Write the structure tokens for this entry.
Amino acid sequence: MMVFEKPKALTNAPLHYCPGCTHGIIHRLVAEAIDSLDIAGRTIGVASVGCSVFAYNYFNCDMVQAAHGRAPAVATGVKRADPSKIVFTYQGDGDLASIGTAETVHSAARGENITIIFVNNAIYGMTGGQMAPTSLPGQVTQTSPYGRDVNTVGYPVRICELLATLDGTGYVERVAVNNVKNVRNAKRAIEKAFRNQVEGKGFSLIEVLSTCPTNWGKTPEGALEWLDQNMIPYYPLGVYKDKFSEEAAK
Amino acid sequence: MAKVTFEKDLCKGCGLCIAACPKKILSLSTDEINQKGHHPAQIDDQSKCIACAFCATMCPDCVITVEK
């Protein structure tokens, strides 16, 4: 009996990510959600700019490449042009939480029936480890060698908390992939975000806390530990809004 | 009987599977180098495997297949 195998919604292309980068786990969880809902034939993904720019090579469904930060706007267009399609975006924090903040906030405010997978690793990975809007206070990066100074560059953006205040948002949850328990929880959350769209409910965003061993300067295992000790306290895990379940309960 | 197989050439030797294994029966090969130039992960004692799939759950590169 098969206990675990590669999901069908992933192609056979080897991932280009660095050793130990948890992007690979999150790709797999998205693919598992697509498989379990049996929607691969009518799913359209929108790839971002950043490390995950090559996502279109890895998902076994139709993919569109959006300009930097504009994935939710492109997804809005695709979904409105053909509402029978399941449309998701896969974006990092440098894409979604900085250059694409406007698109993110307004697609949520409009309550577009799309699914956003937001991968937060608190740093700009692809460009070589610069400070991101989500970098933690005091975090050392290429552009904050003495640690992020909140007096000059401000505070990190907590996307889940921000979007949960909007009436258009349907389902917002923050999960992590630093251990087996959290990965299983992330799988459940991502599947729910896709199911919400299949059922025509509205806007869902899952923030996944991820690692960047290369730019954090940690070993793959050390990066999981750093995430657990530093990121989770600043970005608490949990459901920030679930309008659909609240409505169902009424 | 639990069976774990590794697609060695996809492995990047990150070791996340080794850290996740509750039975501590995985290791990085010391005498083998794969296509990518990494020491790939391997299973040392198949008979002790309990098919929990923790290794495969934490593997970022879908290297591992678990059967029972």
In short: Chain B has a mean pLDDT of 95. Residues 2 and 29 of chain B are 21 Å apart (CA to CA).
